[in-house]
Amino acid sequence: MISQDSSYPDCESTCSKVAELKERIEELEEVVEELRREKQELRGEKQELEKKLNYQKEKYARLWKEHRKFVGGPHKPSSKKTRAEKEEEKRRKRERKKKESGEGDTGREDEEDKEDKEDEGKGKPGRKPGHKPAWRKKPDPKEEIDVTQDKCEDCGNPLGDPTDSHTRMIEDVPDPEPPTATQFNIFEYYCDPCDKKVTATHPNCPDEGDFGPNTLVQATLFKFEERLPNRKAADLLETLYGLEISHGTVFKLTERVSKCLRPHYESIRRELRGAEALHVDETRFSVGGENWWLWSFSDNEHVLYRLVNSRGSNVLEEVLGEDFDGWITSDGLSAYPAFTDKLQRCWSHLFNESEYAADRFEEAVPIDEKLHEIYNHLNEFLEEDPPPSKREEKREWAMNAMKDLTEKEYEEEKVEDLITYIENGMEYWFTYVVEPDVDPTNNQAERDLREPIVIRKIIGTLRNEKGTRIFKTVMTMLATWKRQGLNPREEMLKAVRT
């Protein structure tokens, strides 16, 4: 290609456009050169920043390894805490109780002596020396067996008459028995007044399937009471009774039992709709690999579980109804005030927040101490069963004392979060002072969820909605029967045979 300069030597002198373009080219070349310099500088800065970032990552990894045992949160479950965290919590509780009792600082030596005594007491499991023993009551024997011997087992010498004797009471379970097979000859009739066919029924002959009530109940208890997977439940039925069934059949058996229990489940829901006060809580539960929510509703006699893919107030409305007029003790989830104003916020959750902040920020210590002081004072006041007028006065006093804490200014962001937490529940912290049927904590609901949570950890997830119906129905009935002091096996047999 021939250059323009050699082909047209006089263009620059006669064409102004060419001159402008050459100037523009020179300017762009300068810009390019400047950009190259800036790129080089930025590359150097990037390398420096990468060095700093790598140093921070190494520092973070080192600090995390050293201090992760102290990292937690106010709602971290006990099963997730390290031994060091648990020991630290115990130490803080001892210090807090010491302050509340007004003992003050008795010196490091006394504290060490006290800890040494506590450690000595915790050296061995079981009851401590000096504790009165509790002997297991021995049953009356149904059979007596004389244990005799004719000859010495070492030399074969005849032993003659016994010289002494003693007794031992042995309890044992019967040998596993094979399953029984019963043929039911079911007769059909015709009712003239009703103009319909009537089929005779028998309590030991279920409407569906080939297995009797005992098999249905035992498989269900293995699954939900003993927390066994379906395969393990099937293996145990074969080991104990010689009953060979597949793990899929175990699922079918639990489904049939849940259908028998369903009317009882709905009856419990109707009972809770008329309750004076309830404890309600919720926790995550995997269904088909997705996050659903397991809700628990309970009073002093009933427990009901609901497993749905919602954490909103619609669940409360569905279970309790639009006209529910009882009190609810709960945590700070927004679904509760969206459903009703008759609430009691949980003080255990509040103490978790305040103690967590007080352990990390000095300015949160007075807040935590004041909250414990208010709570302890109210409990002492309520022990005397005061009249309604005195209860209302004390409620106003407590609310004003708590408001004094929230009106102060705080520097730490976490402490401000604690104050916001207190303010959001201000009208619900002291319901229990004026309502004797209401508890100040939601510990009952937390306990209600423990057993389902253990099963959740074992099974990981429920596969479908059919599994959720079985789970919530059976778990509801087991928890309710236990709360009422009834035998789950006997009650389940009654329901299946009805």
Give descriptors for this structure.
18 helices, 54% helix, coiled coil
Helical stretch tally = 18
> What proportion of the residues form beta strands (DSSP E)?
5-15%
The main β sheet shows up as: 5 strands, mixed
* Helix/strand class: alpha/beta
Average residue pLDDT: 88
Shape: extended
The end-to-end distance, rounded to whole angstroms, is 103 Å
Low-confidence parts lasting 5 or more residues at pLDDT below 50? 1-6, 105-109
Supply Rg. 37 Å
Give me the strand/helix succession: HHHHHEEHHHEEEHEHEHHHHHHHH
Number of strands: 7
Give the topology, please.
Elements (H helix, E strand, L loop, with lengths): L3 H4 L3 H4 L1 H52 L15 H19 L6 H14 L66 E4 L4 E4 L13 H13 L4 H12 L5 H27 L3 E11 L2 E9 L4 E6 L4 H8 L6 E4 L4 H5 L3 E3 L1 H12 L6 H18 L5 H19 L6 H12 L6 H4 L8 H17 L5 H19 L4 H10 L1
Parallel strand pairs: 3-6, 6-7
Antiparallel strand pairs: 1-2, 3-4, 4-5
Helix pairs in contact: 6-7, 6-8, 6-18, 7-8, 8-17, 11-12, 11-14, 12-13, 13-14
Condensed summary:
This is Transposase IS66 central domain-containing protein. The protein is α/β, with parallel strands linked by helices.
What does this 3D model show about the protein?
There is one protein chain. The chain is α/β, with parallel strands linked by helices and 498 residues long. The protein has helices at residues 4-7, 11-14, 16-67, 83-101, 108-121, 213-225, 230-241, 247-273, 313-320, 335-339, 347-358, 365-382, 388-406, 413-424, 431-434, 443-459, 465-483, 488-497, and strands spanning 188-191, 196-199, 277-287, 290-298, 303-308, 327-330, 343-345. Among the domains are: 189-253, no CATH class; 347-434, no CATH class. The strands form two sheets. A five-stranded mixed β-sheet has the order 5-4-3-6-7. It has a two-stranded antiparallel ribbon with strand order 1-2. Mean pLDDT is 88; it is low at 1-6 and 105-109.
